[in-house]
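Below is one such protein, fold included:
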Amino acid sequence: MSNPKLTSLVFFLFVISFPTIESTTFPADTAALAAFKSAVKPSSIPPSSCLASWNFSAADPCGVPRISHFTCGVTCSGNRVVQITLDSQGYVGTLTPAISKLSQLIALDLGDNSFYGAIPSSISSITNLETLILRVNSFSGPVPAAIAKLSALETLDLSRNQLSGHLPDLSSLAGLTRLDASYNRLTGPLPSLPPNLHELALKANSLSGSLTKSSFAGKNRLVVIELSENSFTGALESWFFLLPAIQQVDLANNAFAGIAVSKPPANFNSQLVAVNLSYNNMEGLLPATFADFPALRSLAVSHNKFRGPIPWQYSKKGSPLRRLYLDGNYLNGHPPAGLLAAAEEISGSLGDNCLQNCPVSSGLCSTPQKPNSICQQAYRGKP
């Protein structure tokens, strides 16, 4: 007759002698990863790279423990792939449409490689995607309008590629806080923007048209605007500098022709810190009201067509200005005495203007002024 206690002990030892069987990766995820790797040229995969570790016949991507077989660049939650973050190895290949099969993907980062071809529209099927980083590659063609379906997207970085065409309307992406598509070949006007955007960077494209109030309406969280090196035209109106959260503005190297800057309302807590409007076609007098922005530390309006005197308000007591670049205009008269007295505290340049008594001994005046003949011509013979 058998002993029940002995039988129970033997069964217990039998169970613990075998490791717990962990769940394997969702088959569609493994197939999508394999398709992703197959779209990359083998000759561009170094032996020590992340992609070289993707050997799914020997290792389960989401298998536990991940000690003997570690799939570099892949993060899982349970048996689903939720993140791909590739190392910067110069991988050459296309982004397979099969990437859409990774339906639980939250982050896709292929930055600093050599992927080329189109961004597949099927990427819009990854509805949980929060971070999409494709910067510094060679993607070409248009930005897929289908990206606007990625309702969970928070960060979109497409910078330094060869993307062309119009930027699609992304105003439906309520969660998007960072958009960077700088250094591409994008054309057309600025579309309506996501409502909760914090950072907008579209510099070094071929965008055109004027900046309309409708494009920025309701953008109460926009902190950084970088639109330099484009072909924007028209005038900058007062509302632009009164966006509620704006801190940094870079609109250099465009074709803006005018500017209007109103004094901030008494109950408006302006956070504007830096403004760069250099290399445009702005004419008229320098707006003295820039001095009324209590946090403005850097103002650059170099190489425009501003005339008249430098506003004395720029040197008033308590001014926060610490960087002032006014060179390359047609400013005349005498520089404000307070500005020259504070030259050790303020960096920048007043050179290449039509100023009188701007001592070269001052750091602000180290660059010479324009020849008198040019200044007389600009002012029709009047100094």
